[in-house]
Structure formats: C-alpha cells, structure tokens
C-alpha cells in the first residue's frame, strides 16, 4: 500500500465508524441476499440479536486504524483465525466478503466514495485478507498433521445423552469412522453443525471442551436457550437422540494447554491463559 492510500484509509475510519451499524447491517444484508449459501457458515441466531453483525466489519475498521503497524493486532487475528478454521472459512470466502465490503463502503458513503478511496480500501482489505489466509493456512496444516486431526467437518455419532439435575445435558460424541480423535487443551472449543429444518440451513454452534482428552470421543455440555429461534442447543436437547449423526469441527481456540489426567501441582497465569504444570 502507498503512503497516500494509508492516509486515505485513516481519514475515513471515523466516518465509517460513525455509520458503523448502518455499514455492518448493509454489509450483511448484501452478503446474505447475494451469497445466501454463506448463511450456512454464520450462526443466524447471532445475527438476529445483533451481536455478531458488528464483529467482522468493526475488526476490519480496527485494522484500518492500525494500518501503519498491523502487527499490534496479531494476537487478535490469531484468535479470529481459530474461530474461522473451526467454521471451515476458506480463502475463496475472503474474495466474496471483500467484494461485499467494498461495495458496502461505496453504497454507504455515496459520492464521498471516490475511486481513489475505494482503491485504497481494496488494497487495505487485500492486505488483511492475505494476512488472515496465511494464519489460517498454518492452523489448517497443524490440524491436519495432529494425530486424529482433521479440517472442515467430520461426522460423529451421538453415543449417549445424559441430563443432570441442573437441566444441562452432556452429549458423548464418537467419530463415525471409529478412528482416533485429536487431543485438545484447556479453553478450547469445537463447533457442532446441525441441519435446522425450520431455516433450511446448516447451523454451527461452538461448545467448550471441558473434560479430559481421551483420543476416543468428545463430550460437550448443552444448555437450553429459552426462546431463541433457530437455536442449535435447543434442537440438540429436543430432537437429537443417541444414534443420530452430527458434524464436528476439530478443537480450536488459543490457549491449547493439554488437559491433564492428573491434578496439576502448579497453576500460574500467563497472558490470560491458565497454565498447568505436570509434576
Ligand atoms: C478480513 C476479513 C475478516 C475479518 C477481519 C473477520 C473478523 C471476524 C471477527 C472479529 C469475528 C468474531 C470472532 C470471535 O467471536 O471471536 C469473526 C467471526 C466470524 N467470521 Fe470472520 N472475519 C473476516 C472474514 C471472514 C470470512 C471471509 C468469512 C467467511 C464467510 C468469515 C466468517 C466468520 C464467521 C462465520 C464467524 C462466526 C460468526 C458467528 O458466530 O456467526 N469471516 N470474524
């Protein structure tokens, strides 16, 4: 990117932030009306409550603010990369999202969106997309080479579904292929993907992995989400039975510290992640 382009980007960030909700709402409407297949990748319930719509476009604006030194955002990008790889986001998706972002900026800014400005935003987005595609390629490669690892979605069967007295239900999930499953660390999660007939869409939902890694199966705790339309958790609780199949992403999330089979002797904190030391 040229120095002039960086200046232009920084000058428009405040304007775009002021119109943040307008920009992000417009952006997502555009994405979902033109590329409706992406509704299978996003959790549409998060869009109804307005939580997610801000995240993607706001992250792009935060990047633009730090265009002189994007390295300050690396740990954030790494966290987003984990999220993306657990949802099977691929490089071709970046092209689609970039197209909608630039068109949205143009449509929201109107005549203020000169060709020079749009070129600058295109260059900024491409730079960010390439950074993220690189981070995600490394994460996918690591997932693939881990024993029992995989990328994208792997079919699992519900082996058991056990409710506790607090109303939560633990699901025990075994891979349909009967092969090993990869280990995970404290704080990691995986996404469960279910077909939701009322939406005619696949929908993902993240669940934290809390028990010990065992190489054979995963267990997740599912809590009811009262009144939430299109809730994957409610469908798991009400409709999914032992013997049914689900798609799972591989464990993801920063802080991949092995969950121990023995209690730790030392517990310290480093960079916000719980650290355990084996005796
Ligand atoms: C430079 C481009 C992108 C940026 C800066 C970005 C940023 C973000 C951020 C900040 C989050 C929230 C992370 C969290 O909750 O921890 C997120 C989530 C997500 N992103 Fe991206 N993203 C980008 C590109 C993409 C692309 C190309 C796709 C694929 C279509 C995508 C799909 C998603 C999905 C599905 C989620 C989870 C949202 C949900 O729960 O529904 N993102 N992204």
Automatic annotation (TrEMBL):
Residues 1-137 form the Globin domain. Transmembrane segments: none annotated. GO terms for molecular function: FAD binding; heme binding; metal ion binding; nitric oxide dioxygenase NAD(P)H activity; oxygen binding; oxygen carrier activity. It is an enzyme of class 1 (oxidoreductase). It catalyses: 2 nitric oxide + NADH + 2 O2 = 2 nitrate + NAD(+) + H(+); 2 nitric oxide + NADPH + 2 O2 = 2 nitrate + NADP(+) + H(+). Its EC number is 1.14.12.17. InterPro entries: FAD-bd_FR_type (IPR017927), Globin (IPR000971), Globin-like_sf (IPR009050), Globin/Proto (IPR012292), Riboflavin_synthase-like_b-brl (IPR017938). SUPFAM superfamilies: Globin-like, Riboflavin synthase domain-like. One of its GO terms (biological process) is cellular response to nitrosative stress. Keywords: Heme, Iron, Metal-binding, NAD, Oxygen transport, Transport. Residues 151-258 form the FAD-binding FR-type domain. Belongs to the globin family. This is nitric oxide dioxygenase. It comes from Spirosoma foliorum.
């Amino acid at each position: 990117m040229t120095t002039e382009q960086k200046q232009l980007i920084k000058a428009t960030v405040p304007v775009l932030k002021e119109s943040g909700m307008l920009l992000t709402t417009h952006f997502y409407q555009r994405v979902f009306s033109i590329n409706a297949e992406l509704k299978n990748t996003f959790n549409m319930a998060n869009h109804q409550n307005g939580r997610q719509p801000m995240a993607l476009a706001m992250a792009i604006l935060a990047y633009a603010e730090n265009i002189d030194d994007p390295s300050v955002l690396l740990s954030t990008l790494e966290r987003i990369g984990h999220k993306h790889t657990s949802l099977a986001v691929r490089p071709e998706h970046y092209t689609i999202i970039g197209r909608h972002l630039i068109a949205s900026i143009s449509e929201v800014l109107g005549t203020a969106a000169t060709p020079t400005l749009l070129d600058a935003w295109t260059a900024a987005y491409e730079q960010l997309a390439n950074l993220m595609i690189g981070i995600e390629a490394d994460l996918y490669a690591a997932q693939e080479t881990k024993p029992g690892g995989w990328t994208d979605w792997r079919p699992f069967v519900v082996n058991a579904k056990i409710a506790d007295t607090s109303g939560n239900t633990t699901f025990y999930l075994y891979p349909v292929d009967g092969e090993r499953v990869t280990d995970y660390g404290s704080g990691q999660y995986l996404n469960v993907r279910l077909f939701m007939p009322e939406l005619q869409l696949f929908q993902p939902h993240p669940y934290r992995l809390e028990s010990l890694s065992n190489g054979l199966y995963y267990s997740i705790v599912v809590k009811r989400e009262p009144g939430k339309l299109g809730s994957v958790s409610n469908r798991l609780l009400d409709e999914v039975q032992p013997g049914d199949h689900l798609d799972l992403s591989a464990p993801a999330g920063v802080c991949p510290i092995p969950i121990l089979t023995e209690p730790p002797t030392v517990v310290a904190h480093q960079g916000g992640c719980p650290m355990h030391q084996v005796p």
